[in-house]
Amino acid sequence: MEATPAAAAPVTKARTVSERARPIGEITTENAKTWSTGVEELDRVLGGGIVSGAVVLLAGEPGVGKSTLLLDVASRAAQNTRTVLYVTGEESASQVRLRAERIGALRPRLLLAAETDLSTVLGHVEDVQPDLLVVDSVQTIASDAIDSSAGSVSQVREVAASLIRVAKERGMAVVLVGHVTKDGSIAGPRVLEHLVDVVCQFEGDRHSRLRLVRAVKNRYGPTDEVGCFDLSEVGIVGLTDPSGLFLSQHAHPVPGTCVSVTLEGRRPLVSEVQALVAPTNANNPRRATSGLDNSRVSMILAVLERRAGARLSGNDVYVSTVGGVRLAEPACDLAVALAVAGAAIDRPLAAGTIAIGEVGLAGEVRPVAGVGRRLAEAARLGFTSAFVPAGTRDAAPAPEGMEVHEVPDVLTALSRAAFPIVGSRGERGERG
């Protein structure tokens, strides 16, 4: 029996080019210039503004404020003589109109359409010819050419590819709203993030007014910038100086509080850590945290117990941040340690003191990045004393009017803070 010959693999033939390749120096950049969205904090994240023909994916949890932010952006763009088409697939046009009225976003050049069909959306683009298209959201739009429901992998891929193609052909900026899954990743095919030019994450706690926008991918700018926003009843407002949101107001220093400076992208944010240590008769004392990584706080408590002689095993320990901010950076470890130590002996830190440094299991205080920017921000807000890792003053001179204390380990930091909680060679220290 003769073997069936294998089918020949398809070969792609060369096609006559419509426009010849040119030297890169002759390519014009006129169509790739940025224009401001009118929202300074968003421009910071995008790298100065939005580029004509660029496609931006803004992802975030439900209710975090994505639609409110983009409606404000659309309104400001329409106010600056640009035509904006806002396509909503999740709400009715009347619902969006009510939100626009509440935040003052009613503009003649801001056009609104409630559509879920891709062909109809493209028809609106042909008719309106907008400078900016906002689609809320990409998971609600479906194409008749794909035999599956809206939001499926194939539908999201087809919708995104069609809108990207139109954006590049027309030089029209497009902003797509994307949903996220339970673990915080963007819903839909992974290829979606590769297709678009910019991917931004919109973050924030439902119980906090603070919202952060950070770029995960940006073909036109940096990915280490963060935009800060304040979400209120009248809309969402950019915060050029958000540090005040994370500090409590006390007439006098309070035991169990310590201020640190964290870096969100390249922006330093001054944040306060609060701790409460309370005696308990329970066999297993509570360890509760809010706004901090629970495992990292547990590690710091163990270091205080073993390396500094702190008596915490018979106490409940509660550690929290102020203003709902989440501190995941190790640079806040020293502030957590000083806050817990102060709460344990009921003694406050000196007024105007901050603490910066990562705490290791051996009790050492390790250097962190960007100390100069952190100290400068703290000095600007009126702080006069800082506990920092050893060797910091050589790399980052102290700002004028600030006294910098270099501490090689937690034991030294507690001693410099005048906290009699430390012991010698593992002995228990005095307990307040």
Automatic annotation (TrEMBL):
Residues 1-24 are annotated as: Disordered. InterPro entries: AAA+_ATPase (IPR003593), DNA_repair_RadA (IPR004504), P-loop_NTPase (IPR027417), RecA_ATP-bd (IPR020588), Ribosomal_Su5_D2-typ_SF (IPR020568), Ribsml_uS5_D2-typ_fold_subgr (IPR014721). It comes from the Bacteria. ATP binds at G60, E61, P62, G63, V64, G65, K66, S67. Residues 316-432 are annotated as: Lon-protease-like. A motif (RadA KNRFG motif) lies at residues 217-221. The keyword Metal-binding applies. Keywords: ATP-binding, DNA damage, DNA repair, DNA-binding, Hydrolase, Metal-binding, Nucleotide-binding, Stress response, Zinc, Zinc-finger. Residues 1-15 have a biased composition (Low complexity). Residues 31-180 form the RecA family profile domain. The middle region has homology to RecA with ATPase motifs including the RadA KNRFG motif, while the C-terminus is homologous to Lon protease. Belongs to the RecA family. RadA subfamily. PANTHER family: DNA REPAIR PROTEIN RADA, DNA REPAIR PROTEIN RADA-LIKE PROTEIN. DNA-dependent ATPase involved in processing of recombination intermediates, plays a role in repairing DNA breaks. Stimulates the branch migration of RecA-mediated strand transfer reactions, allowing the 3' invading strand to extend heteroduplex DNA faster. Binds ssDNA in the presence of ADP but not other nucleotides, has ATPase activity that is stimulated by ssDNA and various branched DNA structures, but inhibited by SSB. Does not have RecA's homology-searching function. Plays a role in repairing double-strand DNA breaks, probably involving stabilizing or processing branched DNA or blocked replication forks. This is DNA repair protein RadA.
